[in-house]
Amino acid sequence: MIGLTYLLALLVSIGGLALLDRRFRLAFWSDARRAGLTVGLGVLGFLLWDGAGLVLGIFARGDSPHMTGLLLAPELPVEEAFFLTLLCYAALLAWRWFDRQAALRAAHRTDPGERGERP
After folding, report:
1. What's the pLDDT tens digit per position in 66-78?
2. Is residue 85 within 8 Å of residue 78, measured between CB atoms?
3. Which in 25, 46, 73, 88 has the greatest CB count within 10 A?
4. Element of type H or E holding 36
């Protein structure tokens, strides 16, 4: 069981992001296709980055009793894909939230009824 703790923590964290996403309809609950492409392309890009770093000897897999030991490729643990998914999903949710807040502020500034003006 100890070999699954990191993967389980990542899955719980991704689940928490999904709950926030569902509650505020920011990404997958707003446009699943676009969100899937965004997260998928981000994960793919980071996996290619990791692959290049591994080939060049810049990155190396560390040993931890909290990891499964399963590899996607030599020196590339399966947990890395879930971590990158968490990273990309969190970034997408943050972007969508800040974008929505900025739109609300802009709409509030341009609403003449809010300042007591007549349209």
Report:
1. 899 999 999 999 9
2. no
3. 88
4. helix 32-55
